Amino acid sequence: MIEPATTRPSALPQTVRRRSEGPVDILELARPDKRNALDNETVLGLGAYFRAVPEGVRAVVLAAEGRHFCAGLDLNTMDESGVFEGVLHSRMWHGALDALIGSPVPIFSVLKGAVIGGGLELASATHVRVAERSTFYALPEGQHGLFVGGGASVRLPRLIGAARMTDMMLTGRRYDAVEGERIGLSQYVVEDGDGLPTALELAQRAAANSPITNYGILHVLPRTAEANPREGYLIESLMAGIASGSDEAKSRMRVFLDRDTAGART
């Protein structure tokens, strides 16, 4: 059972609720009346949390209250600011969402209902995405005279390709949960209501891994994937040596080998 605790580290605003399940923190966007649209306080609060993940937390589930994950930027927070202010606002989003990508622990997001605009940018900054069947994805900025500003033009083409993102922005095309999983917007599709239990189970499984291995998966793997093969192989070898040489890896391997040997004797 997930305890209904609502404690918050000092960095978290009222729009984000925190509860814990062992080594897994569950963060929930808590603006269901606004379809969890993101204001500056929420974005900055999430960034601050992931720059200083509480001690003992080994994985995080990012979910949302209500029927929708996130309908994007809270348009009520937009004003008649000038060009330079718009640049600074975008860079603020970049800094906050980079903290998610750079998190020392894996982040599993639970998607449902609207995952559009800034909501899709937020989801794409998490490491594993679990989509309920109600999920739909869109980038409506093109129809509003806007352009994405939270990092989507960098992250989404790496997930789905530039051509698909171009189509979404030019035509307003939407993808449902099944289509989204097929093209790479999520890794899992589950029935409505099963998103949080599924993501929590996955997060608990990841939390049981060696922290060194998880760090390599989160921070080294993306770089080897982007590197040319010669550099990628070298980076991989360095990470493999670091992981296998750790005390935890040696301890885990001894347990595995002892169990394997015991099984062979029976």
Automatic annotation (TrEMBL):
Keyword annotations: Lyase
InterPro entries registered for this protein in UniProt: ClpP/crotonase-like_dom_sf, Enoyl-CoA_hydra/iso, Enoyl-CoA_hydra_C
Family statement drawn from the similarity comment of this UniProt entry: Belongs to the enoyl-CoA hydratase/isomerase family.
NCBIfam families, per database record: PRK08150.1 (NF006013)
Organism: Streptomyces kebangsaanensis
Enzymatic reactions: a 4-saturated-(3S)-3-hydroxyacyl-CoA = a (3E)-enoyl-CoA + H2O; a (3S)-3-hydroxyacyl-CoA = a (2E)-enoyl-CoA + H2O
Pfam families: ECH_1
Domain of life: Bacteria
SUPFAM superfamilies: ClpP/crotonase
Keyword Nucleus carried by entry: no
Name recorded for this polypeptide: Crotonase/enoyl-CoA hydratase family protein
Listed PANTHER family: ENOYL-COA HYDRATASE, MITOCHONDRIAL, ENOYL-COA HYDRATASE-RELATED
